[in-house]
Amino acid sequence: MRRISIFGILAFIALFIIFSNIGICEENIRTTIYVGGSGTGNYSSLKEAIYDANSNDIVFVYSGTYYGPIVIDKSIKLIGQDKYNTIIDGVGEDYVLKLDADYVNITGFSIQNSGKVFPNAGINIGTMGNIISGNNLINNYYGIVLLYPTSKNMIFNNYIANNNQCGIYFSGAKHNILTDNYVDTQPFNGFGLYDFSDNNTIKDNTLTHNQFCGVNIRDSYYNVVDGNNFLENTVGLHIPPPECKTTVYENFFSGNTIRIEEERDLIIYSQITSIILILIGFIYLRRKII
Description:
The protein has about 290 residues and is an alpha/beta fold. Among the domains are: about 30 residues; about 130 residues, Pectate Lyase C-like, CATH 2.160.20.10. It contains three helices and 28 strands. The strands form three sheets. The protein has a ten-stranded parallel β-sheet with strand order 1-2-5-8-11-14-17-20-23-26, covered by helices on one side.
């Protein structure tokens, strides 16, 4: 009986190890799902392909026009065949893409025509660890919106132009890296950092022809602005007061109306202006009394 009992225990352990390994293998399997094109079994609908995908899958999208809004709620890699001809169009309704999962990778698309109210954008992000690279973001309300508690996203090598507000808008977004993006002709800011968007790195981007600021940082701490090109913006770079510890070095400025504007300078200017106006009013009233 004792031998049978020991044999049973060993058999149970062996089966447990086998099935555990099967589970691990299943978790690591990565399937590629195809959208568009002419292959057998390819999806025609991008929404349906994403709905049927599992976490860790690749969704490869052939050139064509697909329609949002689309929610991505699993950690997939979404790849377009050609960023000029693989288009995701929001048709003016809501966001175009909304990331509700961590660790999503999006590359190779033109993402356009979001709805035109806050916080609609080409891509709305509220999760962490996502990679957005090699896309065109055009004619949205915002190109990309990073909303609290998003963090640790990498956004690089995108062309962001002609959106209605900012190229990228931060609200409470921390520890993100933006590098090698080209941001052109935004009515407000190329990048706008607000509401304690701390510890972000803005490096090697080109920000040009933005009508307010190339980069506008307000109420945010410990951000790094390094090696960017600020070309022909109204204000190249707006930074908060020194106690916010913004690090600025090796940037290139050309053709901006104002190169660097510090928020404390504006406060001091406003206070001086108020004092001057009060003095003028006092002198005027004194003369009237005399």
